[in-house]
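Tokens help. One example:
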Amino acid sequence: MTLASNPASHPVVWLHHADQHLGLVPTLGGSVAAWQMDHAASPEGRLNLWRPWDGAAADLYQMASFAMVPWSNRISGGGFAQGGQFHPMQPNRAGEPYPIHGDGWLQPWDGRQVADDTLEMSLRSDRFQGNPYDYEAVQTFRLVPGGLDQQVLVRHLGTEPMPYGLGLHPWFLRTPRTRISAPVASVWLCGDDPIPVRETADFPPGWDLNAGISAHGDLIDNAYTGWGGTAQIDWPEWGVRLQAHMPDFAQDGGAAQHYCLIYRPPQGSAFCFEPITQPIDAFHLPGQPGLRVLAKGEALRLSVQWRFGPLAAA
């Protein structure tokens, strides 16, 4: 798919390498416009591995992907407490009652090509819109034969320690037979809104990623715990399988547990599989699962290796 004319204020920076095409939009939340692979059977000779941006919408939910930093998903309770101090937080998206997905996606990043196969974006954020976070972040995208290596790193620059989390928010097109599978231990169920109330290994029908689920069905907007760090998305109509591998993410070298999130809306052309370092509203769950309290100068890193190939040969 060829992107429509791009607003002059948000140009797409393209990387063409290893029979792939990656478009980044640094000034629009450090987001991704498209990730495509050469595909002879596709009408345009390219296949979109992530749902592409139309080149016009300024809504980050219409991008192919964006990073979630310095936390992922929602924070309830009007904020959170750290070190005996309560930090108020405000909703940051129209129609959302809670602050969501951090604040990196709401700010312009600086982008540059650092190698023939690599693009990098960086952000310096200091208490954006009154948030308590002072940090720097770097996203790295490297096209390799058969896929994409993606990394997000955040480094705390504030004086007082703060809890951090990271995530990736890619959107995938869904064909009638698209399926997602991943090894997981349990899922967090929600009440009347997307805030978790109970963790269970008794998956609702059609929710068990271990057995594989359809990309179509009732709403899922839930985090899974005990993710094994691998996943696959199958498009039988295209004959393509995309695999994700999330190595142990690290707080300056220390390994931690994996989480992932599925967003499967009942309608629309796309769904999300999100590698994350903490479940929804971890700030208010017992033990703050997945969050990492960083002192000044300490860093948290999330890396994902995406690999595609023929479905029949997988």
User: Anything to note?
Assistant: Residues 1-6, 251-255 have pLDDT under 50 and may be disordered. The radius of gyration is 19 Å. The CA atoms of residues 118 and 142 lie 4 Å apart. The first strand starts at residue 13 and ends at 17.
